[in-house]
Amino acid sequence: MASLLTVTEWFMQAPHGVRFDWGRAGAERLASRSACLVIVDVLSFTTSVTVAVEAGIRVFPYAWRDESAAVFAAERQAVLATGRRATSTDSPWSLSPAALRNAPFTARLVLPSPNGSAIAAAAAAGGSVVVASCLRNAAATGSWLADQGFGTEQRPVTVIAAGERWPDGSLRPALEDLLGAGAILAALQGEDAGRVLSAEAAAAGVCFEGTRDVVAAVCACASGRELTEGGFGEDVAIAAEVNACGVVPVLTDGAFSAA
């Protein structure tokens, strides 16, 4: 019978230097065995982070949008982003990339998100370098990871597709996050064909490369349709700006800022 240690190695995708998994549970389990975790939440946490960091904003992730979020923001002398439908003249910042692009500059922003932010917190607790990425900065992320020496057996990198949630709280794998993760994995492999991808990571990369029209896929997927039909089509359009951004947000001292 295989030992527990051997089974654990299987699930950790060791000894491959480039790995792929889903959601907060995947991040929590692989963080301690990864030198770097790349979080992908295309609609819309990590896309929003790229838009904000491009503008020079430091983004503090926070897992909950409740009374504790306001306390968290006050302690960090930051403004607190609201829900998409709760923006106002006094509080124009939200999880919407379009709203962030149009809002006035603020130096420090707390951005609550039950998916991307919660995963960022779980990943940071594991002691690894945490990166926010999406379709907008996939190529830049791949280049940065290669430049930093991540993706080897000694310095493994794990790309985490955030996914969404079913009403019962269970993970709903999301196409947009699979495509975003695949774009990063394909870009990283393109930087150095010698890097060894796990089967999971290789399959995610092939999914991206085999999708003829990524923009159309993001717009037509379940999450894209939900946002578009809810009046947030511009958010989907921004999320589908493949490789339009050269910024790589890295979590440093509790906030995402440009690497």
Short structural summary:
The chain is an alpha/beta fold. It is 43% helix and 17% strand.
Please outline the helices and strands:
Elements (H helix, E strand, L loop, with lengths): L3 H8 L6 E5 H9 L4 E5 L4 H10 L3 E5 L4 H9 L3 E2 L16 H6 L5 E5 L3 H10 L3 E5 L4 H10 L9 E5 L2 E2 L5 E2 L2 H17 L7 H11 L4 H7 L1 H8 L3 H7 L9 E4 L2 E4 L1
Parallel strand pairs: 1-7, 2-6, 2-7, 3-5, 4-5
Antiparallel strand pairs: 8-9, 10-11
Helix pairs in contact: 2-6, 7-8, 8-9, 11-12
Please explain how this structure is put together.
The chain is of the alpha/beta class and 259 residues long. The protein has twelve helices and eleven strands. Strand 8 and strand 9 form a beta hairpin. The N and C termini lie far apart (45 Å).
For the CA atoms, what is the radius of gyration?
A: 17 Å
Q: What is the terminal-to-terminal distance?
A: 45 Å
| Global shape | globular
Residue share in β-strands: 15-25%
Query: What is the overall pLDDT average?
Result: 94
Written as H for each helix and E for each strand, in order along the chain, the element string is: HEHEHEHEHEHEHEEEHHHHHEE
Low-confidence spans: 1-5
Question: Taking strands numbered 1, 2, ... along the chain, how are they ordered across the largest sheet?
Answer: 1-7-2-6
Overall SS class: alpha/beta
Number of helices: 12
Total strands: the figure is: 11
Q: Tell me the helix content.
A: 40-55%
Q: Mind summarizing the main beta sheet?
A: 4 strands, parallel
